């Protein structure tokens, strides 16, 4: 639009208008996202306790943070949770997608069944699984009533195993979504390639291993990015399922941040933990988004 | 998901096919059983849960747990049931979704049809804002809501959800409008149509599908949010998710599992309903949120 030198005020207004309309929401994002991030980063270097305070402390909060045992637990838990969650969801999702892609009768019925948990709140999922996994009334009790007296499934009350119950509930919730991503990927594959491979005498197994799965690379990448992002942010599920317990055995960075900031009045340390969470997510998301945006150009 | 895809699947042997069906059915059970158990136990008297089998059908069918969860169960200290919190959630979700969608549509329109220098950076910044861990904004947000005098209110939550929903709404509309022929917009411009006129007359009429996707996505996300609700409105203005969690964890006396299950279903009902009615769009929204750019 090279009409900038036009004297017509209306035209100039028209050219200015888009930016004017975009400006307020962009300003909101700048302030409430990036301004707030800077503010939290700043707080992580201060002696804030119950309220923000501005006494500079340097890296003090970070070195304290890494000496706190609960943070150690939280990081370890996140590593266990995230890796199992990502791997299991991907395996189940890929398997279901491949199976559903075999001209299955009733696919239209199965697909929504696999996916509906994604519409639920993690609080709902957590509440439901909390009682299924409860040894007193849940699966263990049912097995006992069915005559399998020695059956034991008390993971949710067990300090060492409770984190795995979170994996179970989270996989239940999200694996169908991963299935949908892979299914979309499978359906996007060019049939000519497959026909050619079949003519060359490739077996089904070879077809999947050598051709189809490598072609699904973008779906794998998206699934990985989305799942790891969900894992790092996961807060509601842990709260609803175990409340971070027993003790703090299922603490994750998100619950750690909340409890240090709002209930233990260690805002500086809470801010530092939030900054570490952001950095972890940014390390995954920024390269991914950058690549996606560049591709589009 | 076209018909052509059917050829993707080469035929497997009969044993293989049986195995495939078996696995698919097992997984269907895995996904369905938890909800079925919730439903069964929400219409059972408490005694049958604590003294009986969770998987068995009720001997005495009762809707008392539902009535209790809705209107008399103890939430925190008040025996109000989930009803007031359900309306809190509605009061929070509806304005937030409407405002966000309007902003998103306009932003998407501008970022594709009125491009300017630096628009990719603007979009990139908005896009990244979808993926931040919200813990990073909790502390300043609590301060700002306090200063504005809307902490602990539905209005405060609306503001929060609008701000953090803009990114996704913009993403949806931008990707959708990017495929819309720019020539039409240019032609209308030459005919003298203005910025808003072009939007109303040319883009908006064809924005139906993406609007459904965007509304569903925002509705589900905002309805299901727990972190912001718990942080900024844990009292009278608490949304449904926070109230449900209080219901489950605050019972001082006997744990009324049947009421918890009924409450959980009540909290899930709106999003579930949306999913059943418009599942196709729900899936598309999820995909668009994951395959960005």
TrEMBL record, chain A:
It comes from the Bacteria. This is Lactose transport system permease protein LacF. Belongs to the binding-protein-dependent transport system permease family. The gene is lacF_3. InterPro entries: ABC_transporter_permease (IPR051393), MetI-like (IPR000515), MetI-like_sf (IPR035906). Keywords: Cell membrane, Membrane, Transmembrane, Transmembrane helix, Transport. SUPFAM superfamilies: MetI-like (SSF161098). It is found in: Cell membrane. The chain crosses the membrane at residues 20-45, 78-101, 113-133, 161-186, 207-232, 267-291. Gene3D superfamilies: MetI-like.
Automatic annotation (TrEMBL), chain B:
It is a multi-pass membrane protein. This is Inner membrane ABC transporter permease protein YcjP. The chain crosses the membrane at residues 19-40, 92-110, 122-141, 147-173, 194-219, 259-283. The gene is ycjP_1. Pfam families: BPD_transp_1. GO terms for biological process: transmembrane transport. Belongs to the binding-protein-dependent transport system permease family. Keywords: Membrane, Transmembrane, Transmembrane helix, Transport. Its main location: membrane. It is found in: Cell membrane.
């Amino acid at each position: 639009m090279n009409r900038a030198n036009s004297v017509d005020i209306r035209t100039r207004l028209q050219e200015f208008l888009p930016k004017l309309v975009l400006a307020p929401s962009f300003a909101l994002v700048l302030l409430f996202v990036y301004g707030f991030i800077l503010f939290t980063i700043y707080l992580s270097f201060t002696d804030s306790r119950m309220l923000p305070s501005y006494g500079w402390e340097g890296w003090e909060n970070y070195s304290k943070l890494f000496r706190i045992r609960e943070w150690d637990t939280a990081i370890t838990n996140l590593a266990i949770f995230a890796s199992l969650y990502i791997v299991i969801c991907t395996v189940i999702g890929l398997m279901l997608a491949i199976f559903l892609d075999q001209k299955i009768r009733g696919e239209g019925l199965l697909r929504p069944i696999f996916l509906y948990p994604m519409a639920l709140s993690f609080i709902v999922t957590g509440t439901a699984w909390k009682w299924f996994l409860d040894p007193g009334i849940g699966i263990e009790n049912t097995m006992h009533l069915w005559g399998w007296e020695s059956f034991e499934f008390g993971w949710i009350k067990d300090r060492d195993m409770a984190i795995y119950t979170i994996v179970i509930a989270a996989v239940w919730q999200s694996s169908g979504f991963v299935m949908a991503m892979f299914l979309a990927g499978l359906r996007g594959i060019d049939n000519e390639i497959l026909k050619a491979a079949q003519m060359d005498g490739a077996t089904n197994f070879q077809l999947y291993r050598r051709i189809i799965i490598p072609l699904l690379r973008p779906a794998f990448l998206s699934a990985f990015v989305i799942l790891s992002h969900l894992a790092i942010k996961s807060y509601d599920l842990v709260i609803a399922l175990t409340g971070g317990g027993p003790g703090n055995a299922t603490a994750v960075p998100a619950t750690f941040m909340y409890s240090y900031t709002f209930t233990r009045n260690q805002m500086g340390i809470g801010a530092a933990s939030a900054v570490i969470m952001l950095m972890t997510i940014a390390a995954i998301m920024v390269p991914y988004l950058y690549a996606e945006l560049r591709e589009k150009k | 998901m076209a018909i052509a895809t059917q050829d993707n699947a080469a035929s497997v042997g009969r044993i293989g096919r049986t195995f495939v069906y078996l696995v698919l059915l097992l997984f269907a059970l895995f996904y369905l059983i938890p909800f079925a158990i919730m439903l069964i136990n929400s219409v059972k008297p408490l005694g049958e849960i604590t003294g009986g089998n969770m998987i068995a059908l009720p001997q005495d069918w009762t809707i008392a747990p539902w009535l209790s969860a809705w209107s008399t169960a103890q939430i925190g200290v008040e025996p109000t049931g989930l009803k007031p919190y359900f309306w809190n959630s509605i009061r929070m979700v509806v304005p937030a979704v409407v405002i966000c969608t309007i902003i998103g549509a306009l932003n998407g329109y501008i970022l594709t049809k009125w491009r300017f220098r630096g628009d990719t950076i603007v979009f990139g910044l908005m896009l990244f804002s979808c993926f931040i861990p919200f813990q990073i904004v909790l502390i300043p947000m609590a301060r700002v809501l306090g200063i504005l005098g809307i902490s602990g209110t539905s209005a405060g939550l609306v503001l929060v959800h609008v701000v953090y929903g803009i990114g996704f709404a913009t993403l949806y509309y931008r990707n959708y409008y990017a495929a819309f022929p720019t020539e039409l917009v240019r032609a209308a411009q030459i005919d003298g149509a203005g910025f808003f006129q072009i939007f109303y007359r040319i883009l908006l009429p064809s924005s139906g599908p993406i609007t459904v996707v965007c509304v569903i996505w925002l509705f589900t996300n905002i309805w299901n949010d727990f972190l912001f609700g718990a942080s900024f409105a844990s009292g009278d203005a608490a949304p449904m998710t926070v109230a449900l969690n209080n219901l489950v964890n605050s019972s001082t006396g006997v744990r009324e599992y049947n009421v918890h299950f009924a409450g959980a279903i009540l909290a899930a009902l709106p999003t579930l309903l949306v999913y059943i009615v418009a599942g196709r769009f729900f899936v598309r929204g999820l995909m668009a949120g994951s395959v960005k750019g």
